[in-house]
Design brief:
- There is one protein chain.
- The chain has 140 residues and is mostly helical.
- 79% of the residues lie in helices and 0% in strands.
- It has helices at residues 3-25, 31-53, 64-90, 93-100, 103-113, 121-138.
- The longest helix has 27 residues, at 64-90.
- The termini are far apart.
- 4% of the residues are buried.
Length: 140
Amino acid sequence: MERWILYAFISMFFAGFTSVIAKQGLVGISAELGLTIRTIFVFCFVTLFAMMAVTPSELSLLRKENFIWLGLSGVTTALSWIFYYKALKLGDVATVALIDKGSVIVAIFLAWLILKEIITLRIILGACFMLLGLIIITKK
């Protein structure tokens, strides 16, 4: 198994815990306060991780384009988190998390449009099944 696949599965594992833990953390407080507290912890943890993993010489490799694209990624992450926490506060974790994973469909489309990635029939079929699942999940 390639290393990136292992990393993706580890990410999936922790992401699964994240929603349930966050829902418990929101008991008695607003989604906005919960998200703020979570973000402070994320900032501190990632900063400590970067201090251990990033070499000072790597900083010289930064270009304006890195700041632009990563800055835009930060903005879209923040918007995603804001609305995810609002949904999590009001809805069931299982349903909210499944709908949120529909972002894979958006990512596939944008990877094709912006990054010019090749989208195979296998990926298209998988995305269609995900879309079908989203339709089933959101029907009452």
